[in-house]
Every structure is written in C-alpha cells, then in structure tokens.
Write a structure and sequence with these properties.
4-stranded antiparallel sheet, 5-stranded mixed sheet, 4% helix, 1 helix, globular
C-alpha cells in the first residue's frame, strides 16, 4: 500500500491553490495601457547547433532520427533569435496587483525533450509536467530562491504539478535520466513577460504608462537590458540583440 501511494504522489500531485494577488490593490487601467513590441536578434557568426545522441534510449528516437540537433540555440538565417525570455525587470509600480491564473502552464516531455524549452509562469501558478513518452523520465527543478524538487514521471501519461511562490528568473529544469533534456522557467510576480518566437518577435501588452527596464535572457548568450518609456495608448518598438561570448 505504501508503494502505491508513493507512485500516485509522484505522478499526479495536486497543485496548491494560488495565493491572493500581491501588491497594493491597484489595477491597470486598460483605457490608458500601452504595448511593447519588438524583435530579438543575434549578431555575428551563429554557433553550430550541437548534435545530441538520443539512441541511448530507443523510446527517444523520433522522426528526427537518433542524432537530432539541440534546440538550445535557434537562430534564423536573418539573425532572429528564438526562445529568449523578455520581461519587465524593473520600473513597475509595486502598488499594482495582478490576479494569479488558476489554469496551470504545461510542459510536455515529448520525444525526450521538454516542450516548450523556455516559458514563463506567475508566482503561485501551477506548472504541470506531462510525460508523453513511452519511457521513464524525471523532473528535476533547480531553483535558487524556491524549493528544489526531483520527482519521476515513470510512464507514458504520468504527470506532476509544482508551484513556485517566489519570483525568479530563471529556473532550470532537467531530466537526470536523459541528460540532454532541459527547460527554463521564468517565475514572475506580474504578467508582463513573453518568449521570442521563431522570427524573434515578442509582444508585451496591457502595460501601464511608465519607464521600465526590460530584461532579456537567453540560456547560451546571457542577459541584456534596455530602458524604455511607454506613454498612454502607445505601442513602443524595441530591438534587443545578443552576440557570441
């Protein structure tokens, strides 16, 4: 009986209810809110994508073959950089409060990769990790400010839920069974964050007028910041770039 209960806990824990919205209770006025749009690019010679060997586990071999390329660095021919976490790092009035979403964000273990690789979540919002592979995975969350965990998703269809309560950019997820598997989660106190798409584009909407420090993080190229002022109703365009270190 103890073993059965242990497996149930490992594969489908219930997320804690979201906390009450933090802040001073001030709400963003949608009638005056602005928008931030932009694009993330890489300058210089793009590094070669790493080849990974997934055939150590036959269940990991998909249409991409036994030696697919890593998705850690995805740079288009025009320099567009995918999977950059873009967020409001500073400048937001702490009096603002934002309701925490009740629906979880979902990370899929599929083809022995975490999908998506980079994502954001609100502090207090559940993260649900699902195993879509016919093999054993585990989820090892390695935060610096929140509580570390290491829990298996032992079979296809297994899932688990975890909730981080402290803002933190970024939290690394890995799989100790398949060492190439990685995901990165930005834990945010507000909803003003996004991840750049395949064309490098990003949008942060509903931003109250103000002057902000915008942070951009990439797992291989580090951090960069820019300051931007958004007026009432304004759509401001921002260009962010990284270069090889």
């Amino acid at each position: 009986m103890v073993l059965v209960l242990g497996l149930a806990a490992a594969c489908g824990s219930t997320p804690a209810p979201p906390p009450a919205a933090a802040g001073g209770g001030k709400k963003v006025d949608a009638a005056t809110a602005g928008k931030l749009i932009g694009r993330v690019t890489f300058t210089g010679t793009a590094p070669a994508r790493e080849t990974i060997r997934v055939n150590t586990d036959k269940a990991c071999v998909t249409d991409a073959g036994p030696n697919p390329q890593s998705d850690a660095v995805l740079i288009a021919s025009d320099g567009a950089l995918q999977n950059t976490f873009v967020y409001v790092k500073a400048g937001l009035d702490p009096a603002y409060s934002f309701d925490v979403p009740t629906a979880p964000v979902v990370i899929d273990q599929r083809g022995c990769h975490y999908t998506p690789r980079v994502l954001g979540v609100r502090a207090g919002q559940a993260i649900k990790v699902v195993n879509s592979d016919d093999t054993l995975h585990n989820v090892h969350g390695m935060p610096m400010k929140n509580q570390e965990f290491n829990q298996s998703t032992a079979y296809k269809g297994a899932d688990l839920s975890r909730t981080f309560t402290v803002p933190e950019v970024m939290v690394r997820f890995k799989c100790d069974v398949h060492g190439w598997m990685a995901a990165w989660v930005g834990v945010m106190a507000n909803p003003f964050y996004t991840v750049s798409g395949a064309d490098g584009s990003f949008t942060i909407d509903g931003l109250p007028p103000g002057t902000y420090t915008i942070g951009a993080w990439h797992e291989k190229f580090g951090d960069t910041t820019q300051q931007v002022t958004v007026a009432e109703h304004e759509t401001k365009t921002l260009a962010l770039s990284f270069a090889a270190k």
